[in-house]
Amino acid sequence: GSVFGNMLEELESRKDKLGINSCGITVTTMEDVFLRVSNMSDLKYMKKDANRQLLQGVSVEFEEVYGGLPDMKTYSIFNQLHALLEKRFHYTKRHWSILITQVALPFLLVFLCLLAIRGVQGELRENFDPIKLDISSVYGSTDGFYYSTTEQKLTNEVINVMRENNVNSANVKNPTHFVLDY
Questions:
Q1: Can you list the positions of beta strands (E) in 26-172?
Q2: Residue 35 counted as domain residue
Q3: I need a labelling partner for 81 at 20 to 30 A (CA). Which of 25, 36, 68, 177 fits?
Q4: Which 3 state secondary structure label does DSSP give 113?
């Protein structure tokens, strides 16, 4: 207490030399200082923009507190994908045993299944007579037609295939009328 008294007496005696009119001591807490600074900054911003809304003396605009965040404004699916992959990478670095169960174990199981199929493949083979795929063995007597204005190689091939399969073929002038009249 006497230190402050001596200091105040010294200031009073040298007032003119120091250029001081008066001096005093007040007890102010840090909370009071912060409240005063906050009120002063609110008043400053209110003068800037009279339409700005205040909620209990505190500005409600996000940009004033944190500044503009350009990454938050531009939505991009690539940013989300990058963040997700980076998160998975760091998680896998910390928990590498999960990587084994997620990648190596399925790879090993697929490999073992392929080996098992290859080993059993020879035992399951039986020799069957080839199936004859012709129209006459399935449908019996069959009628067919073709439409061609000129003789071409493809037309001759179609005629030969029909003849080999015992299909009665005819060259028609109008395929639609032929089918409707059949």
A1: 54-55, 58-59, 142-146, 167-171
A2: yes
A3: 68
A4: helix
Residue 105 included in any domain: no
Higher pLDDT, 22 or 90: 90
At 86 the pLDDT is 95
Contacts of 134 (CB under 8 A, 6+ apart): 164, 165, 166
Domain boundary at 35, 55, 75, which? Answer: 55
Residue 142 lies in a domain: yes
Bridge partner list, 170: 145
Enter the pTM of the model.
Answer: 0.28
Q: What is the pLDDT of residues 108-151, one digit of tens each?
A: 999 999 999 888 877 777 778 887 777 777 777 888 888 888 87
Beta carbons of 144 and 162 less than 8 angstroms apart: yes
Tokens 């005063």, residue? 36
Q: Amino acid letter at 118?
A: R
Domain boundary among 55, 75, 97: 55
User: Domain for residue 152, yes or no?
Assistant: yes
| C-alpha dihedral sign at 53, 54, 60, 64 | positive
Helix (H, G, I), strand (E, B) or coil at 102: helix
Domain count, the chain: 2
> Which residue, 78, 38, 42, is CA-closest to 59?
42
CB 76 within 8 A of CB 68: no
